[in-house]
Amino acid sequence: MRQIFLLLIFISAVTTNAQVGIIKESLKLKSAILGKEVEYSLYLPPDYDQSNRRYPVLYLLHGYTDDETGWTQFGEVKAIADKQLQNMEMTSMIIAMPDGGVSWYINSADGKVKYEDFFIKEFIPHIDASLRTRAEKRYRGIAGLSMGGHGTMIMAVKYPNLFAVAAPLSAGIFTRDELVNMPDESWDNVFGPPYGKNKGETRVTDHLKKNWILSLVNDAQADDLKKVKYYIDCGDKDFLIKGNMELHSILIDKKVPHEFRVREGIHNWDYWRTALPEVFNFVSKSFHQ
């Protein structure tokens, strides 16, 4: 009887482990564009090591002051993805989470940090070359929170032929008034690195316009915007709600289909953890088509 009991425990453990994905944290990629090693983390679906199939990829971007471990440590990406898979509420996918520093996922005005170039020309090709991915637009998505939400929109709007779906959460989108009237100290600390330490109206440079989400979306062709499926989510008490609502308004005016969610919440991990299951579900539906 004891042997049977132990056998049942063993079988149960094997079955449970088969449903658990794998996190690989702080892997390194040597970047010629950035002139340094860039760390990144991965979530591999439960059956990755037991199959030879290829998987869609979701690029998941962290927020300001976080790094490639933000989603794994605070966002509980593994626990949420495992549960969604077990409940058959998402498709098996690779989740790639790079360290974006404080780059806002763009090329800086002074040309010293070309993160956008790194992401498009080095990081995505590296993921496709080193993992069994489905290296096609229809199987590639991007999502992120705060600064990562900004990066999500940057990549989706600038490269609509690379991404099928984009899900910015509490995206770092500011109205023109918010940018122009931002206290100097806040501007210098947060936006000084990518845009330069300017004041007032002088902050609205050509470089900013080329990377300011509201300007990008407003100037983009509606047909190009419609190449990507959007899921936009921001808390009703989030300090970024105005910029996100203005983005929603522009997309409505351009008749671009998109999902827009305003839930009760603020700019914190509790909000983003509750948003992630819906993101996985939305992205999965896109991959299924």
How would you explain this protein's 3D organization?
- With 289 residues, this protein is of the alpha/beta class.
- The protein has one domain: Rossmann fold (3-Layer(aba) Sandwich).
- It is 43% helix and 18% strand.
- It has 13 helices and eight strands.
- Strands 1-2-4-3-5-6-7-8 form an eight-stranded mixed β-sheet, sandwiched between helices.
- Helix 12 links the parallel strand 7 and strand 8.
- Helix 10 runs parallel beside helix 12.
- The longest helix is centred in the C-terminal third of the chain and has 20 residues.
- The N and C termini lie far apart (50 Å).
- About 5% of the residues have low confidence.
List the helices and strands and how they pair.
Layout: H1 2-18, E1 22-31, E2 36-44, E3 57-61, H2 70-73, H3 77-86, E4 94-98, H4 115-130, E5 140-145, H5 147-158, E6 165-169, H6 176-180, H7 184-190, H8 192-195, H9 206-209, H10 213-219, H11 222-225, E7 229-235, H12 241-253, E8 259-263, H13 269-288
Parallel strand pairs: 3-4, 3-5, 5-6, 6-7, 7-8
Antiparallel strand pairs: 1-2, 2-4
> In total, how many domains does the architecture comprise?
1
Tell me the structural class: alpha/beta
Helix content: 40-55%
User: How would you state the average pLDDT, rounded?
Assistant: 94
End-to-end Cα distance:
50 Å
Strand percent estimate: 15-25%
**Computed Rg:** 20 Å
Per CATH, the superfamily is Alpha/Beta hydrolase fold, catalytic domain
CATH-scheme architecture: 3-Layer(aba) Sandwich
Main sheet makeup: 8 strands, mixed
Total number of strands: 8
Outline, from the CA principal axes?
globular
Q: Report the top-level CATH class.
A: Alpha Beta
By CATH, the topology is Rossmann fold
Number of helices: 13
Q: Could you give the order of the helices and strands?
A: HEEEHHEHEHEHHHHHHEHEH
- Unreliable stretches: 4-17
